[in-house]
Amino acid sequence: MDAPAGPTPPPRRRPWLRRTAGALVYVLATLAACEGLARLAFSWTSFVQRVEGRDDASWRLRWARRQAEQPTLYYGFDVHHPVRGWAVRPGVRDLRAFGDRLVNTNSEGLRGRREYPSPRPAGVPRILVFGDSFTFGDEVGDDETYCHFLQQLLPHTEVLNLGVHGYGHDQMLLYLREAGPRFRPDVVLLGFVYDDMERNLLGFRDFAKPRFELRGARLELRGTPVPSPEELRAREWRRPRLLDLASMLRSAWDWRSGAAGERMRDLTAALLDEFRGEAERLGARPAFAYLPVYGELDKPDLTMTRRERFFFGYCRERGVQSMYLQRFFLQRKRAGESLKLYGHWGAREHRIAAEGLAAYLVEKGLVPAPPPPAE
Asked: Which of 154, 191, 343, 354 qualifies as a cystine partner to 131, CB 3.0-4.6 A?
């Protein structure tokens, strides 16, 4: 006879499993506590002012705070754009902005009311002007932008203002790809402001935006389609503040160490190369103008700053027509005129820039000289 079966042995214990589970619970509890502390810290204005900087998270959080007071994209004339992030709304009529200034746009979203036929009129040169808020004309009216004054100085040439506030060179490139084939320009003019270079590194600035990454010698587009304001507001509360804090600290270190600056210069050069190539593929001549802003207007002489050396060094190496407007501002300063050294240009600074641009464009043969005034 078989012996009766004994009692079932207890299962083998696995202490390592218990230890792993305990460690995992500990880690999750620690992360949850840190996230709670981070959210508490971000509710303190003094902490936010100390840690916010020039990174995506900082710009996004600034935008999110504004939404509580003004649930618009940024300005009242802005509209969401799935490729460029934001654009100027078409068909704006007599909108009061920047205090008491009037903003109008045509059916294409270009500053002013004038419409531009496609195809362009025969025998009429056309200039597309790209840039940021200085080109668009923040803080001035429709008839006070340098594009408007340039049109007056070159009456037999069409000058189209495609400037958009807050744009980096990445967004300007995408705008050129979008609008260039439709408008068929003779000249593509880029109003270069050094601050735009920093925007090339960002995926969020005045609003969410696309950006390019430099992979070897190739530019790869990231961040499109750009989510709508409604989507961003809905997901903002779920974003881990711990990751935002880590992003801010890493960005601060990258700028302090010089790594971010080097990456910014390399990426900007690649974007300008592609912008220039896109203009040439359209059959247009590219021209880059350095727009002096803020304290650059008040330099005592024509000695170039580090920023200007980067720009003009790039143009010289690539054989791009460049325009140095600071000398025109210096002439006015020596004549006793006062210049606006803070914020955006006023009407006087826009006028001076237009006079310098007109002189360069005619001198270099990019546009025909205007007819002499009638006696």
From this structure: 191
Q: Give the Cα separation of 235 and 312 in Å (integer).
A: 43
C-beta separation of 266 from 218 below 8 A = no
Output the CA–CA distances (angstroms, integers) from residue 280 to 152, 170, 171, in the order listed: 26, 17, 18
- Quickly count: other Cβ atoms within 10 Å of residue 213's Cβ: 14
DSSP-derived secondary structure letter, 116: -
What does the alpha-carbon distance between residue 138 and residue 36 come to, in Å, rounded to a whole number? 40
d(CA 289, CA 310): 13
**87: nearest Cα among 165, 170, 192, 201:** 165
Strand, helix or coil for residue 259? helix
Q: Which long-range contacts (CB under 8 A, 24 or more apart) does 312-318 make?
A: 314/269, 314/272, 315/288, 318/272, 318/273, 318/276
258-267 CB burial, b ≥16 within 10 A, e <16: eebeeebeeb
**375 residues of the chain, pLDDT tens digit each:** 555 556 666 655 567 777 777 777 877 788 888 888 888 888 888 888 899 999 999 999 999 988 878 777 889 999 999 999 999 999 999 999 998 899 999 999 999 999 998 888 888 999 999 999 999 999 999 999 999 999 999 999 999 999 999 999 999 999 999 999 999 999 999 999 999 999 999 999 999 999 999 998 899 999 999 999 999 999 988 899 999 999 999 999 999 999 999 999 999 999 999 999 999 999 999 999 999 998 898 888 878 889 999 999 999 999 999 999 999 999 999 999 999 999 999 999 999 999 999 999 999 999 998 877 666
Separation CA 230–CA 28 (nearest Å)? 31
- The yes/no answer on whether domain 52-363 falls in CATH 3.30.460.80 is no
Give every CB contact of residue 248 below 8 A, 6+ residues apart in sequence.
Answer: 51, 52, 53, 55, 57, 58
Query: pTM here?
Result: 0.91
- Residue pair 294/195 in contact (Cβ under 8 Å)? The answer is no
